[in-house]
Amino acid sequence: MAVFISYSRNDQAFVDKLSIDLLNHNVKVWRDEYKLSAGDSLTARIGKGIDQASVLCVVLSDSALASKWVRQEVEAGLLREREKSGFTIVPLLVQHVPVPEALKDYMWIDFTQHYEEAIGKLLALLERKIDDGGNGGLVVGEDYFNFWGTEQGYTEGRYDLLIEVVSFDKEEQFCIVTRVQIRGNEAATEDSFRERGIDSPKAYLIDALAENFAENPARVQVRINKPAHATFPIESEDGKLQFTAVAEVKMLGASEGVTTVFNFGGLFKQIKLTAGQRKIAD
Predict the structure, then answer these.
(1) Which domain holds residue 8?
(2) Which of 14, 19, 101, 161 has an alpha carbon 20 to 30 Å from 254's alpha carbon atom?
């Protein structure tokens, strides 16, 4: 399942903490910083995020009530609720402010007093709605955890795959977001995959990435407000089926001056293992 968080930038510290707690409980989080990159349409991407989510969490504060974007996201959520069975809107009170008229009929959760008690209530609500479609997973290590998700489809008949990973070191206050957009050539069609016996293009590409980066580690230096980028090819043994993969790796939540060297190539072996356990679904 996925949760869309609507919030004012003035409440980002709270939302950072909330996002980490949700991700740590295998809840996919959609926020503008995780999903938007240069050239994206903000309105279109936010609309798509709400459309794909099961829950809209609205963080309520003085700043949020004054935010044009929060109002638009709430309106989009109300429309989505009318169109989609099971879609839920949950107001999260982080300041003592009046609940907007449009949200007064919804059960809200009070985060102004005891955060742990409030997050427990939110997680209990979300646990009743968990619906794992095989499009993501959680990898937990001794000192870290990575939450990954995918989106796929065909653009003008050619296969596209987006892989996104949010990585947390349990000893750090920041996270690393890796976004890999993979686009196929004219041979990357449904018929071509079928002829080659490829039942799942997504599994095929994740396997290829895991094997490639096992032999050729991909490390980049990342610091706040300075994303790292890399482009690399993927192709079939006969060279006819080709893909271009473009990776963006960025740091969120760190202070100015913090830098880290991150091996984003190592993520794909973890994704392959987790996806194998979950039987990647198309």
Answers:
(1) 2-127
(2) 161
